[in-house]
Amino acid sequence: MQTYSTMRAAYEARVAEHARRTGPFVGGCAWVRGEYVPAEEAQVPLFDLGFLRSDLTYDVPAVWDGRYFRLEDHLDRLERSLAKIRMAPPVSRDELRGILVELVRKTQLRDAYVDIIVTRGRFKPGTRDPRNTETALYAFVIPYIWVMPLDQQQAGGSAIVTRNVRRIPVSAVDPTVKNLQWGDFTRGIFEALDRGANWPFLPDADGNLTEGIGYNIVMVKDDTVMTPGRGVLEGVTRKTVLEIAEASGLKTHLGDVPIGGLYDADEIFMCTTAGGIMPITTLDGQPVGGGQVGPVTSAIWDRYWALHADPTLTMQIDYE
Ligand SMILES: *Cc1c(COP(=O)(O)O)cnc(C)c1O
Description:
28% of the residues lie in helices and 24% in strands.
């Protein structure tokens, strides 16, 4: 990770600069029922089906150094998710983009985690017909979240393949719709912690790798970068990783990844918007490859963060 120290120093300087800002929204801002409110004061109505039934979808883009990264990819995915679960978009795409920019402006955050949640709203009194509800939009912007803390990313983390829980079948919950039916993931994180690790990797019933608690999983073997092609959320970070790998002359495999192959990997990393490229150097208590962050992971890590300044993939925020 050649760019690690410069990237980290610049990020920490922005965080320190933000800490000197004052105002009601510097800790975060939420958009709830048509109003901008300090994130800590935002509330969800009890009868919203998002709360009562987890009947919702969501998406998480991020802002890095004052720019939205691949926002249109996140909005495309959100629209596809809404269509799959038969929810009407609560606002137009342009209105949503406007709210998302305004939220960031209100916080003045240069590096932010952005959550857009669309719920089915609530049943009309006396009915339980999901076709007759008005979908509701919630959104919030808070300081950038690291699923794997930045200072752990140089040494890499410790993962396990779960034995006590499998990913919920695709035939029950469509994993390509970003969702919060996290029963399997929650069992997974407990199992990982019980076994002295931090990151659960969930297999499916056929013994193939799926994903973990909000991240896709990528393995490198020789000159091939492999990641599960089905049974997982189609991550924007995963897409960026595959594009970087192809542009660097590596081979890519977007298809089944049998669990057995993982133990034979040269390198493994996880990827998500909230944390980027997160190296795994221990799997089930054994070192992965040489037990250190490998050269392919390192090169992808560098390129991933460099792309956050690319004007074709980013949208600069006007903070004035
Ligand atoms: C959000 C998420 C990911 C990562 O998606 P990105 O678009 O890269 O942030 C992977 N798996 C699950 C289950 C997720 O919820």
